[in-house]
Amino acid sequence: QKEVEQNSGPLSVPEGAIASLNCTYSDRGSQSFFWYRQYSGKSPELIMFIYSNGDKEDGRFTAQLNKASQYVSLLIRDSQPSDSATYLCAVTGGGTSYGKLTFGQGTILTVHP
Amino acid sequence: GAGVSQSPSNKVTEKGKDVELRCDPISGHTALYWYRQSLGQGLEFLIYFQGNSAPDKSGLPSDRFSAERTGGSVSTLTIQRTQQEDSAVYLCASSLAKWTGGGYRELFFGEGSRLTVL
Questions:
Q1: Do A44 and B109 touch (CB under 8 A)?
Q2: Does B14 touch chain A (CB under 8 A)?
Q3: Do the Cβ atoms of B103 and A92 come within 8 Å?
Q4: Per-residue tens of pLDDT for chain A, all 113 residues
Q5: Is the Cβ pair B107, A99 closer than 8 Å?
Q6: What 3 state SS string does A16-45 have?
């Protein structure tokens, strides 16, 4: 079992729709959870982080965390073509591995006009 | 510098040769990470440093890979006797490693070093 799993997609949504990206993780001790966006040929950049159960909203983005289910998601409202990118879920380790940040394989999102 | 700097940006080498990849993190960032990204794949963790020490080296693929960090700043990733499967983009990232509440760790990435082994 991979430490962090994502559906690789591609996920295709029409402009203006809600895009839903999902991620599961295996380490119950994980404390912090991140969503990074990576445009083709570029380096990843942080979109959001979350460490408490529930929802966290930032503009068009909402991160959702459920530690009991070991599940974290990202919702993008009013999707735009400029949101087309690969979205990477990242999770910090538990216990003495708290400094290690592990990434999933990423979900490719395409927003079509 | 203002951001994480990596060099070289591109490296083509022959199988069996050694290569060194360099990372200069953001000034003041105590944590430094190396990841590898193969074409169309996610980021594969290699190693991270806290200061000059490496608490977790578990991601290094084999003993041909080594990394060091000196002065709590610049890091070098060395690959000995390169193989074709080593071809990838090697990404370096740095972080303030500041913990707030449950933990906050934003990584700032460099542009990467693209390694091609012929």
A1: yes
A2: no
A3: yes
A4: 678 999 888 999 999 999 999 999 998 888 889 999 999 989 999 999 998 899 999 999 999 999 999 999 999 999 999 999 999 999 987 665 667 788 999 999 999 99
A5: no
A6: CCCEEEEEEECCCCCCCEEEEEECCCCCCE
